[in-house]
Write a structure and sequence with these properties.
The protein has 14 helices and 15 strands. By secondary structure, the protein is of the alpha/beta class. It folds into two domains: 130 residues, Aspartate Aminotransferase, domain 1 (Alpha-Beta Complex), CATH 3.90.1150; 241 residues, Aspartate Aminotransferase, domain 2. Helix 8 links the parallel strand 7 and strand 8. The structure holds pyridoxal-5'-phosphate (PLP). The site of pyridoxal-5'-phosphate has 13 residues, from helix 4. InterPro entries: Ala_Aminotransferase, Aminotransferase_I/II_large, PyrdxlP-dep_Trfase, PyrdxlP-dep_Trfase_major, PyrdxlP-dep_Trfase_small.
């Protein structure tokens, strides 16, 4: 028999990074196999921290299962797409759209992948925030495009820096990604900043890609302003889903809404349609969760209010981090994360991936390094604020103790 030919990873993957489930997670699994208990603060997966799926959603999905064994329309079942239309009709100033302007997906993740594959040619540029949710950067690269990162300004509550966005525009810029509320920083963007981004998109004819998966996870009265309401005159794709607000990340259920003028973008939109067809359809039982989720009681409200669990946990994480010498943290106004800064004058960290690894091995807590979110310097980590306040406080205390003697 001939020797088997070596199989390398495709060169398409050379710039595709996803450190949220990277090498440190492999080590965490190894430690678990050795019998250790690891507190995994790397993924925003509410179910892993005792958040239950809303009963109504589970019930409707179970009732649907006996009739959900066939493929559906590639865009998704009509009742779910209508429920998405209804959801946005309730939002002031959201531009009108119909069920045919909605694509359901196996999570927002699949829809991001499809969008970038349909949009990009070699050398096309996409503006993406730094720090970002890294799937946007990864899928831009996989789609053959070039991600360019615009800075969000930590000293200004992590709001996007409009000057930096402007400075990075070239004739090859095709789209701008907005993640609001933001993962990993928890920032909720002001109207002025969103208007500034829309003005830049208008001036340079850019597609707006707005990831709003945390739009209902807001604290202290923060207001979420959908990008599409600011730019009804521009083509805007809004992404959202059930993973966070409805705590059913494992169902893999999300949607994409298209608003604004479409005539100039027929080819691109046909491309999305084609890719939706090639994946046949999203998981059908999970599509049946959409209508139940969107039309029922919004149970997230009780979790984010002043005495709600998510609110308490956000406070515990933020207070604990701020109490560590040489650590500061912009108070998250939304989402499920904190993104603290380690002052380089106080903490000597040259390689933040190594820091995360060393902390995991010593303290059995898994974080994700800031550079994993395309933040350029090794001075941040992301902490998921989903565990109960007591557990978070203890993990952060361990972080403080570990940092006090850590050198690289
Ligand atoms: N977008 C952002 C900003 C996220 O934080 C996540 C998951 O953490 C996703 C998209 C992916 O969500 P889904 O579970 O719908 O694929």
């Amino acid at each position: 028999m001939n020797p088997l030919r070596a199989l390398d990873q495709s060169s398409k993957l050379k710039d595709v990074l996803y450190e949220i489930r990277g090498q440190a997670l492999v080590e965490a699994h190894r430690l678990e196999n050795d019998g250790h208990t690891i507190l995994k603060l790397n993924t925003g997966n509410p179910a892993a921290f005792g958040f239950e799926a809303p009963f109504q959603i589970v019930r409707d999905m179970i009732e649907a299962i006996p009739h959900a064994h066939g493929y559906s329309d590639s865009r998704g079942i009509v009742s779910a797409r209508r429920a998405v239309v209804y959801r946005y009709e309730q939002l002031e100033d959201f531009p009108a759209f119909g069920p045919d302007d909605v694509f359901l997906g196996n999570g927002v993740s699949e829809l991001i992948t499809m969008t970038m594959q349909a949009l990009l040619d070699e050398g096309d540029e996409v503006l993406i925030p730094a720090p970002d949710y890294p799937l946007w950067t990864a899928m831009t690269s996989l789609g053959g495009g070039t991600p360019l990162h615009y800075r969000c300004d930590e000293l200004n509550g992590w709001q996007p820096d409009l000057e930096d966005i402007r400075a990075q525009i070239t004739p090859r810029t095709k789209a701008i990604v907005v993640i609001n509320p933001n993962n990993p920083t928890g920032a909720v963007y002001t109207r002025e900043v969103l208007e500034g981004i829309a003005a830049i998109a208008r001036e340079h004819s850019l597609l707006l890609l707005s990831d709003e998966i945390y739009d209902r996870i807001l604290f202290d009265g923060a207001e979420h302003i959908p990008m599409a309401t600011i730019a009804p005159d521009l083509l805007c794709l809004t992404f959202n889903g059930l993973s966070k607000t409805y705590r059913v990340a494992g169902y893999r259920s999300g949607w994409l809404v298209i608003t604004g003028p479409q005539d100039h973008a027929e080819g691109f939109l046909e491309g999305i349609n084609l890719l939706a067809s090639t994946r046949l359809c999203p998981n059908v039982p999970a599509q049946h969760a959409v209508q139940a989720a969107l039309s029922g009681v919004q149970s997230i409200d009780a979790l984010i209010g002043p005495s709600g669990r998510l609110h308490e946990q956000r406070d515990a994480a933020w207070q604990g981090l701020e109490a560590i010498p040489g650590v500061s943290c912009v108070k998250p106004a939304g989402a499920l994360y904190a993104f603290p800064r380690f002052d380089p004058e106080v903490h000597e960290i040259r390689d933040d991936a190594k820091f995360v690894y060393d902390f995991l091995v010593a303290e059995h807590v898994l974080l994700v390094q800031g550079t994993g979110f395309n933040w350029p310097t090794p001075d941040h980590v992301r902490i998921v604020t989903l565990p109960e306040a007591r557990v978070l406080s203890e993990a952060i205390e361990r972080l403080g103790n570990f940092l006090s003697s850590y050198r690289q």
